[in-house]
Amino acid sequence: MMNISIRKTEHSDLSEIMRVEEEAFGYNKEAELVKDLLNDPTAEPRLSLLAFDGDEAVGHILFTSVMIGDTKIKASILAPLAVVPKAQSQGIGGKLIQEGLKRLQKEGVSIVFVLGHPGYYPKYGFAPVYPRAIDAPYPIPEKHRDAWMMQVLDNTNPATISGTVVVSDILNQPEHWRE
Question: What positions does the domain N-acetyltransferase occupy (predicted)?
Fold first, then answer.
């Protein structure tokens, strides 16, 4: 039985975060993305959490700040979520998502976006953004439009919002918005 604990990351956790990301994705592109996002001032405020099984880091999630057009709505994007292979399919990703959303809600964040698997994220309250008029930073092909999802954490009415989501400089690269 795994004994999972989750805590906010510290600067000294970078090597553990990188290891989790590399193991989870099988290459270092996501790890480099995370390192860059952690150093990108346009990504602030951000929330970075590590999940531990005992004292071993087994999962990581990162939320970074975004803007929706010219609105003043506090919003974030979840990117990426990583769980090491040996700890996958045990609910750790879900625990990281739930803990992150709870903390963001306490910080007054209204909406969280994710570009992710439409079979996974709806289990944690995310729903496709379409047909609402909130566009991803880059066009999402129609066959993948259900992968552009959002979750409202307060009483904000998404039907009243329109605009393009403006992400941090590091995430604002077309390669992060392709399949």
Answer: 4-154
Neighbours of 39 (CB within 10 A): 10
Tell which residue, 161, 153, 109, has the closest CA to residue 132: 161
Contact 74, 109 (CB under 8 A): yes
pLDDT (tens digit per residue) in 16-68: 999 999 999 999 999 999 999 999 999 999 999 999 999 999 999 999 999 99
Q: Give the integer Cα–Cα distance in Å for 57 and 71.
A: 37
Strands (E), 27-118: 47-53, 56-68, 75-83, 111-115
Extract the tokens encoding 43.
């990504």
pTM above 0.90, yes or no: yes
Among 57, 97, 94, which residue's Cα sits nearest to residue 77? 97
The first and second tokens of residue 24, run together, are 């989870």
d(CA 43, CA 63): 9
Tens digit of pLDDT for each residue in 101-114?
999 999 999 999 99
